[in-house]
TrEMBL record, chain A:
It is found in: Cell membrane. It comes from Ancylobacter radicis. This is AzlC family ABC transporter permease. The keyword Chloroplast does not apply. Coiled coil: none annotated.
From TrEMBL, chain B:
The chain crosses the membrane at residues 6-28, 40-58, 64-95. The keyword Membrane applies. It holds the Pfam family AzlD. It comes from Ancylobacter radicis. This is AzlD domain-containing protein.
Length: 241, 102
């Protein structure tokens, strides 16, 4: 059959790749830094010790989930809501990881699962944009992730120490826009042409549907799956024979 | 919340979060390679990005539309991401300022 998947070259994981990935996410470090400081401040406000806020940034490294659990930081510990919220907000990582299959080909499991500790929206987006231009090195994810992680942790410490500052709403708002604009420009680089029309339309509509009708935080999961399935369906219908 | 409890919460969160990070590549390993799987995964990355961008843009309101619209246009014209993002944010800031003045 002519449409059998062609075997791509095995992926690599090198220092050079790490360096390229680190350079690629430089531009989004300022928002990561400011959100990190904001998290440190908010964590102190919610009654966490500074060292605990820093530790959370070190081992969890997932901004949205970390902010969300601050609202649940009560006694007795609301274990179920806490862990469900953490899972729901981070479930999108499952789709991000699955989409990196080709970039993990032939790598030792410890390298793959080690690299995944640093998987995050920003370095993932940078990597898949680079993949379109021929990038085959999973180090790209690691380098970008390490730089973001170091920034996130340092910023949390600064926020936790600085304490009483309050961030101007206007400024955090603009930083939110930096991240959206980053993802949107990545999307432009990812577009292959008309084949993407239907899947992307479905993904957008499904994501908005999830925002309106589902509990918070499921829109990336729902939109991603719906768009992927729409693309699959499209290929099945267009397939000759 | 005692210190012990807080530590348990933090490490439980870390475990759950890592499970989602490792889960994608783990689960996809059980799916046999086929034209269908390849097709789905090929569309997945773009669809996830769309699902990130669209709700965030709508939530941003007029400034969100201006920032994303200008950034996308600039990315198409200039073919460079960084200046495009900068122009998008600048346009949103100008939009905000002009609305505030009126």
């Amino acid at each position: 059959m002519s449409l059998a998947p062609q075997e791509p070259a095995p992926a690599t994981l090198t220092w050079a790749g790490c360096w390229r990935g680190a350079r690629a996410i430089m531009a989004v470090l300022p928002p990561v830094f400011v959100f990190g400081v904001a998290f440190g401040i908010a964590a102190r406000g919610a009654g966490l010790e500074g060292w605990l806020a820093a530790l959370m940034s070190v081992v969890v490294f997932a901004g949205a989930a970390q902010f969300a659990v601050l609202d649940l930081w009560t006694t007795p510990v609301p274990w179920l809501p806490l862990l469900v919220a953490t899972f729901a907000i981070n479930a999108r990582h499952i789709l991000l990881g699955a989409s990196l299959r080709a970039l993990c080909r032939g790598l030792a499991p410890w390298k793959v699962y080690g690299a995944m500790t640093l998987l995050s929206d920003l370095n993932w987006a940078a990597l898949i944009a680079a993949e379109r231009k021929g990038e085959r090195d999973l180090g790209y994810l690691v380098g970008g992730g390490l730089l973001m992680w170091a920034t996130w942790v340092a910023a949390t410490v600064i926020g936790a120490v600085a304490g009483g500052l309050t961030l101007d709403d206007v400024k955090t708002y603009a930083l939110d826009l930096v991240l959206v604009a980053f993802f949107a420009t990545t999307l432009v680089g990812l577009r292959r042409g008309r084949v993407d029309d239907l899947p992307w339309l479905v993904a957008g509509l499904a994501a908005m549907g999830a925002v309106w009708f589902l509990p918070p935080n499921w829109h990336v999961m729902v939109g991603g799956l719906a768009g992927g399935l729409a693309g699959l369906l499209r290929d099945e219908i267009k397939r000759p024979g | 919340m005692t210190t012990t409890q807080a530590l348990l919460v933090v490490f439980a969160m870390a475990l759950v979060t890592y499970a989602t990070r490792a889960g994608g590549i783990f689960l996809v390993g059980f799916v046999p390679m086929s034209a269908r799987t390849e097709s789905f995964l090929r569309y997945l990355a773009g669809a996830v990005l769309v699902a990130l961008v669209v709700p965030a843009t709508v939530r941003g309101g007029p400034e969100g539309y201006v920032a994303v619209g200008v950034a996308v246009l600039a990315r198409l014209v200039l073919r460079k991401a960084l200046p495009a993002i900068a122009l998008g944010i600048l346009a949103a800031a100008l939009w905000r300022a002009s609305m505030g003045a009126s």
